[in-house]
Amino acid sequence: MINNPYQQYKEQSLATLAPGELLVKLFEEAIKQMHLARIAIEKKADFSVANDCLNKAQTIVSTLTTSLDMRYPISADLRDMYIFIIKQIHTANLKKDTKMIEETIPLLKDLRDSFEQAEKISRRNLHMGGKAI
Q: CATH code at 82?
């Protein structure tokens, strides 16, 4: 049982999200972690902070990879993109390379934006009585 009302609210909010909305939130969190890692590295702060942030981002993308439904042709393309991003994050973490982080963030943003747009179209179709894509 969770005693923290804010934590309860967060968990309830996540539990009620549509799958597309959850994907967008996951990408937003991965992007946030990448930014935090870049800042930690640039400030020559505790590199363990950067490591933790990059590991979190990598875990998110790895989870997205394992959740793909390979019955759809686009899933193979997404898997390849996710694997590339995971490798970029891993290498950036090993080298503490802010340039690699900066190059990876736009890929995550593009994916987030694509899923966000798909979610909006799906929601609009549902409200108009059509079927979601």
A: 1.20.120.340
Quickly tell me which residue has 């799958």 as its tokens: 19
Structure tokens at 128: 């108009």
Q: With respect to residue 14, please indicate whether it lies within any of the assigned structural domains.
A: no
The CA distance from 119 to 111, in Å, is 12
Rounded distance between C-alpha atoms, residue 96 and residue 123, angstroms? 40
Q: Which domain holds residue 31?
A: 19-127
The whole model's pTM is what? 0.82
Q: What is the overall mean pLDDT for the chain?
A: 88
pLDDT at residue 131 is higher than 60: no
- Angle among Cα 86, 61, 31 to the nearest 5 degrees reads 95
Question: Does residue 24 belong to any structural domain of this protein?
Answer: yes
